[in-house]
Every structure is written in structure tokens, then in C-alpha cells.
Amino acid sequence: MKNDVIVAVDPIKTVQEMDTALFKVLIEGTEPDWTQLMWLHNGKELLPPASNRIKPSDGRKILTITSVVKADEGMYRCGLTMPDGRYHFADFELKVEKGDSSDLLVPVQNQCGPCTAPVPP
Fold first, then answer.
1. Per the CB 3.0–4.6 Å rule, which of 56, 86, 90, 96 could disulfide with 73?
2. pLDDT tens, position by position, 7-37
3. What is the C-alpha R_g of the chain?
4. Higher pLDDT, 119 or 99
């Protein structure tokens, strides 16, 4: 059920690779009013710890993804289960643009220094 119980703040994010994405929800009521809050990515629950780059905070109302990569792109959902079994949710979309990660890439170094081994024919 999508309604005003849970509201997405800034539901569409576009970030560069290696940047940080932050998703936040506003929830009406307090934690005793709901029994479970979970985050999903493309329909799969992000079980803690989903990754050391993905961290929920503020009672799981904020989801932070650091060092974003292309695989993080997609649909996110924050789902809230009420004591009577009703389910409320807020949807988010993360778009990842290619960043300048050339400074992160280190060229493969020749392990033998100036190689003197013969080159096979």
C-alpha cells in the first residue's frame, strides 16, 4: 500500500561512479507503530550487512551507499510492515553515470622489472 505513512525524500538520484548515494524516508508515527522496516534493491532484500558500502542509519530510515558502482543502479524500495500486517512502501531509483575513475586504476606493473626473458615465437 503506497500512501502517506512512508514518503520518499528525493526519490530519483543520479550519481557518478564512486560517489555516495543517500536515500531517506519520512515515516508517520514512531517505531512501535511499525514492526519491520527493510530496504530492497531490484526486489531483493538488503540484509545487514549487505555490503560494507551499504549502511542504514537513523533507525534504518536513511540508506547510504558509498563508492557507488554501476551494479548499484536500479530500483530501491523501503518497505514498512505494520503490526496488523499492512505493508507500506516508498520507491527510489538510482542512476549511475560513468565517472572519472582513472585515478583509481593502477596500471599493471611488470613483475620482473626490465624483463630479459626471451619472447616466445
1. 96
2. 888 899 999 999 999 999 988 766 667 778 8
3. 21
4. 99
Q: For 86, what's the count of Cα atoms within 13 Å in the CB-facing half-sphere? A: 10
Chain segment 31-52, per-residue pLDDT in tens: 667 778 889 999 998 876 656 7
What does pTM read for this prediction?
Answer: 0.73
Amino acid sitting at position 43: G
Q: Which amino acid is at 11?
A: P
DSSP 46-64: -PSSSBTTEEEETTTTEEE
Q: Any idea what the Cα angle at residue 7 is, between residues 66 and 25, rounded to 5°?
A: 30
Instruction: Give residue for cell 524500495.
Output: 77
